[in-house]
Specification:
The structure holds two protein chains of two kinds.
Chain A (H helix, E strand, L loop, with lengths): L2 H7 L3 E2 L4 H7 L11 H4 L1 H14 L3 E3 L17 H19 L4 E6 L14 H14 L5 E7 L2 H14 L4 E5 L13 H10 L4 E5 L4 H12 L6 E5 L15 H13 L4 E4 L5 H11 L8 H4 L8 E3 L4 E3 L6 E5 L5 H8 L3 H14 L3 E4 L8 H15 L4 E4 L3 H10 L5 E6 L2 H14 L2 E5 L10 H17 L7 E4 L11 H16 L2 E5 L10 H14 L4 E4 L4 H13 L7 H7 L18 H10 L2 H12 L4 H22 L4 H21 L11 E6 L7 H12 L3 E4 L6 H7 L5 E7 L6 H14 L4 E5 L5 H6 L4 E2 L3 H13 L1
Parallel strand pairs in A: 1-8, 2-3, 3-4, 4-5, 5-6, 6-7, 7-8, 11-12, 11-18, 12-13, 13-14, 14-15, 15-16, 16-17, 17-18, 19-20, 19-21, 21-22, 22-23
Antiparallel strand pairs in A: 9-10
Helix pairs in contact in A: 4-5, 4-11, 5-6, 6-7, 8-9, 9-10, 10-11, 14-15, 15-16, 16-17, 18-19, 20-21, 23-24, 23-25, 23-26, 24-26, 25-26, 26-27, 27-31, 28-29
Chain B lengths: L2 E2 L7 H7 L9 H17 L3 E11 L3 E3 L4 E2 L2 H7 L4 E8 L2 H13 L1 H29 L4 E2 L15 H7 L2 H5 L2 E2 L5 E2 L3 E9 L20 H4 L11
Antiparallel strand pairs in B: 1-2, 2-3, 2-5, 3-4, 5-9, 6-9, 7-8
Helix pairs in contact in B: 1-5, 2-5, 4-5
The chains are: A alpha/beta, B alpha+beta.
Amino acid sequence: MDFRKLLEENEFVYLDGGMGTTFLDLGIETGEIPELLNLTSPEVLEKIHGMFIDAGSMILYSNTFGANRYKLEDTGYTVDEVIGAGVANLKNAIRKSGKEAYAALDVGPLGRLMEPGGDLSFEEAYDVFAEIIRAGKDADLIVIETMTDLSEMRAALLAAKENSDKPVMCTMSFELNGRTFTGCSCSAMALSLTALGADAIGVNCSLGPAELVPIVEEISHWTHLPLVAKANAGLPDPVTGRYNVMAEDFAETAVKFADLGVKILGGCCGTSPAYIAALKELLKDRKFKAREEEVTGGAIIPTAVCSVSKTVVIDQPRIIGERINPTGKKRFKEALVNNDINYILGQAIEQVNAGADILDVNVGLPDIDEKAMMVRTVKALQGVTDLPLQLDSTIPEVLEAALRVYNGKPIVNSVNGEEESLQKILPIVKKYGACVLGLTLDKNGIPATVEERFAIAQRILDRATAIGIPKRDVFIDCLTMTASTEQAAAMVTINSVHRVKHELGLKTALGVSNISFGLPNRELITSSFLQICLANGLDLPIINPNIAVISGAVRAYKVLANIDKDSREYIAAYNTATPQAAPPPSNALEATPEGLMYAVQSGLKQDGARITEKLLETTDAMKIIDEVLIPALDKTGADFEKGTIFLPQLILSAGVAQAAFEVIKSKMPNDGEKVSKGKVVLATVKGDIHDIGKNIVKVLLENYGYDVIDLGRDVEYEAVVEAATPEDVKLVGLSALMTTTLKSMEETIKLVKERRPDIKVVVGGAVLTPEFAEKIGADFYSRDAKQTVDIARIVYSE
Amino acid sequence: MNFMIKLEKIDREQALRYMSYKGGNMTDTAAAYIEECEKLLLDVIRPVFVYRVFRIKQFYPLVLENGLVFDGNDISAHLEGCEYAAVFAVTIGAESDQLIRRLQVGDMAKSMITDALASAAAEQAADLAEEEIKKSLPGKHFTWRYSPGYGDLSLDVQPKVLKMLNAGKQAGIILHSDNMMSPMKSVTAFIGVSESEIAQKRKSCAECRLNEDCQLRRKGLHCGFQKTT
């Protein structure tokens, strides 16, 4: 079908109404899975579709909302059969009516929770949706509706785009607060789905038309695409289950959507054919008025990137945190090699707290599978921070893999003026609708003059817009050289930024830290350079936000440039009157073993780290560990067992010890192994995704100096066996929360013991008892994290 | 569509019970953490509930007007004498789960504290939902609320309960494969509704599914006779 033509030739395009309501009106028993009616009672579906066609619906949804492989599992029917029949019934109804109407394959949520909260991976969701899309090949278009999880919506949209060439409409369900149940905002929804190539976007279900009007209005500012609105007939009555807004009132309110520039209108729960007819009647003499966003092709929409819940508009300098990058960082490289995702997440959190607006993510290292690591890191980061990401790699396949799973609109770092780069990177950027960072270099290297750098920027822009990347999504990095070796280059960079910003009208980014390399008092040079760049039009400084003076330079600039109105952000950042979590002043504790002991017991993390650093100047690391940290932890552990302190306090103390250990490790980088008391493998068993208990155990073990190999949750048997194979691993800890997963615990133990009969296994979790632990072959039962540490000591002292 | 509930503060006493606090001294740091976590949590929670009132057709087993059957004697015994069952699902929203998970990275203590505060918040939300439902049915008499997992009312009924409330669409509550709810801090329950006065049954651990397996009981505590799962 020609979707554009349909929209152009009609003032408004009408959808259908609520399928469930119409079943109810006709007195049809739908059973557990209404989609099976497609096969058992095709005449009913034809009748219902026919009623909506008669009422004026031009696009009708097939009865396939829940027809996915999970819901059909025990029905004896396949996805192909149920969807095939659903689309066929609809097409028959259209044919019999003799009217011009189109059959939309209706795709609803899968009813399962996506990662990181749940166990459904993006990749699996994609496969399930792809199967649905292929089964609906006879439909004229595809509609993905009632989604509340942006990640699931993206998986479905991507599956639709890659497995068919039909137009795709996408609608999500929002609550009164302007977010979906999983926290997706209107702007993030609109930016992300526009980026990924939907043909029309909007809202359906959840609320009545009156409540959805402001939500549609918000969405309308963030997309140039045609808008869709399919509201409920108000609210259901808890006693009768019936909706409370009648057809005429519904239509009168829904007309407000037309005022907002909505082209495609229909109804959801509680709306019968009469509602559609009423709506059509009210709008019959109205002319559609396109929004300015639509008319300008999006040119008036601000440049923005987003995660699922946070949209960052690039209308002022925004800090891109550069710390998730192994270049020149031994500890980071170690983390990549050891798959230590938590270290990387820690780097993210630190930058978030320091005021970063966007995080750059680079996990490139020879000898690791960069693609797998990138996907894993992006997924994990999305679970712990809402900052938008800048995906940073030189390898197109790595970037594409990251773009698939990134839940929002990111920046791609980077493309450059070289032909190969332009050819490989730009099509990926276009496909996933990302913003892209273009570096002003090409096969001849980094040009020495402003003119040449400007010319490359121009070339990148031309090539990007030629394949349909909007101009506002192209950012340019004019590249920083080191002032100590190429002093003249600093002004070249600054002037290039100025010209790109003001002549090309593009947003500019710049990694600034390089400037001061090799000079004393680096921070002074870096922050001075940064200030000059900002004054010349730098929008996206790529910096280490943890250095106060550097992120401070951005904040100060925003005050002086009259961007930070009333200096609000500046005051919020530096007003020390704000109460802090750790009350006593840092210098109250002396840098003595007693001071450290007190810091651990009182949960004073910063003091713990500071004192440890000081003590290391005079005291041997092992001495600090054995004579201060461990005894301090033992004391809190004993207090916990006596019940005089409670679990959060024990964990707080452990946190201080952890900070102290980190200091010790960083001070003796080549000696890192020596401070380890032994290796412990931890896993939450296959089938179980409840891992907070295991994570508590991990923190405590690490703070007692053990190296923990954390396999995560829902861990395959074989992965545990493999991790437990090296001879120096003497203890495996397994946790399970659910009775249903105790079986996999037993199985895991069996396989581990087959491979390593000498290894000890400790188990814990809400449903376990000492008796049961023994029965399934565990060596130890542990009732809490503290006892697990005691067990580790026994095992490693043997 | 669902009903929103406003929570101004979190029941500290209940939350501390979930943290296994048995009195004794608390460091300033721990107290400040609790303060901070409560703020973080109140900022992200968005308690909503959905409910439906069904006529009861039969007891032993319980059969509702929509034809749904609930096996087990305890739920029938609990509702016996009532003409209606009000069934509800309440949640404090998915963002509290996200917050708890987020805090695990930087600060496990904060994550644990927030987890306990969120459990308490879910109980409070259930209390308030119950109040609202009772207000919507003036002149009626009610039993206390009874949740899947209590007595012999198995957690296996969760798919049925959430489906009949359309809780996925209406409140964003869906199930993991093991019948645990997501958002984690959610509660489903039945309240008996009667035209005439009903004898109240006593709340106790004996009614609870967890009974001997209960983590709190093992530590000599109790949950206030309400259980989130």
